[in-house]
Design a protein that fits this description.
This is Esterase. The chain has a single domain, classed as Rossmann fold (3-Layer(aba) Sandwich), CATH 3.40.50. It is 41% helix and 21% strand. The protein is built from 11 helices and 8 strands. It has an 8-stranded mixed sheet with strand order 1-2-4-3-5-6-7-8, sandwiched between helices. About 2% of the residues have low confidence.
């Protein structure tokens, strides 16, 4: 250490003593929780216990007095798809590219039990002995979740159902068998392979029973191989052959995406399609 530096340090120490004691305690940053939405343990007579329901409300909901459409999200648990789908809704609100929408995430517990239709395939039954109770989940949505949401939040009666993979299969099955449940359906890479593709192969029979009530179906799939594509082709052929004036449907292939990468971009496009901001008058 040079003589000049010693003199400077000594002078600084002397000044500090003259000024009195220095407080050395460091102030801790203030910690505030980030609140994304509200989680409810919804009592369910159908399931005999409580089920996780997560709700995201648009910014300004409390003060607006407005009513809103509702998107019901399958696999909507906090550790599932709730955060990234509600984030898409938030982005659309912030930048003004989509209408405000309430996102209701319905958490899954046993996905093959809750989202898959019954199968007679012995291999699937042996591997997934609890499978095939999708009708029970539809009852839960119809009789318990929707009444809870409509009774607690300001909704405008416009509803949509979204899901990916097995949840996408559930979306397609619900559209085909109980189309009156929702106004719009979004199925991302639906697992049409389940039960040997029977749902896709029987889709024409279900469509013959449809009414002409207005509804929308959005289908999309990544590069998942020729067998998966063939089943999607079977489904879309049925939709073309049994065209109903009230039903608007589209299939958007995404050949550059895989089953693991498709969801976020597909969900963003679905939001822009379903909740487009009306053009300025």
């Amino acid at each position: 250490m040079t003589g000049l530096r010693r003199l400077m340090l000594a002078a600084g120490f002397a000044l500090s003593l003259a000024a009195g004691p220095i407080a050395h305690a460091q102030t801790e940053p203030v910690e505030t929780p980030i609140v994304i939405g509200q989680s409810y343990a919804l009592p369910s007579a159908i399931y005999g216990g409580t089920r996780e329901i997560n709700v995201w409300l648009p910014p300004g909901y409390a003060e607006s007095g407005q009513t809103y459409p509702v998107l019901y999200l399958l696999d909507g648990g906090q550790q599932q798809d709730f955060h990234h789908i509600s984030g898409i809704a938030q982005l659309g609100t912030i930048v003004g590219t989509t209408r405000d929408v309430i996102v209701v995430g319905v958490g899954s517990v046993d996905r093959r039990n809750e989202l898959a239709l019954p199968t007679e395939n012995p291999e699937l039954i042996a591997r997934y002995p609890t499978q095939g109770q999708s009708s029970r989940m539809r009852d839960f949505l119809w009789k318990e979740v929707e009444p809870f949401v409509e009774g607690r939040f300001r909704t405008n009666g416009e509803t949509a159902l979204m899901g990916e993979s097995l949840a996408g299969l559930f979306v397609v099955e619900t559209f085909l068998k109980e189309p009156q449940m929702f106004d719009a359906y979004v199925a991302v890479s639906p697992s049409l392979w389940w039960d040997g593709g029977q749902l896709a192969r029987q889709s024409g029979a279900h469509l013959r029973d449809h009414s002409n009530d207005p509804r929308t179906l959005i289908l999309t799939m990544g590069d998942e191989g020729p067998e998966a594509q063939a089943l999607m082709d079977t489904l879309t052929a049925s939709l073309r052959d049994h065209a109903l004036p009230g039903v608007t449907w589209e299939f958007q292939p995404r050949p550059t995406e895989t089953h693991a990468t498709i969801y976020h971009g597909a969900a963003l496009d679905a939001f822009r399609r379903l909740y487009a901001v009306p053009p300025a008058q």
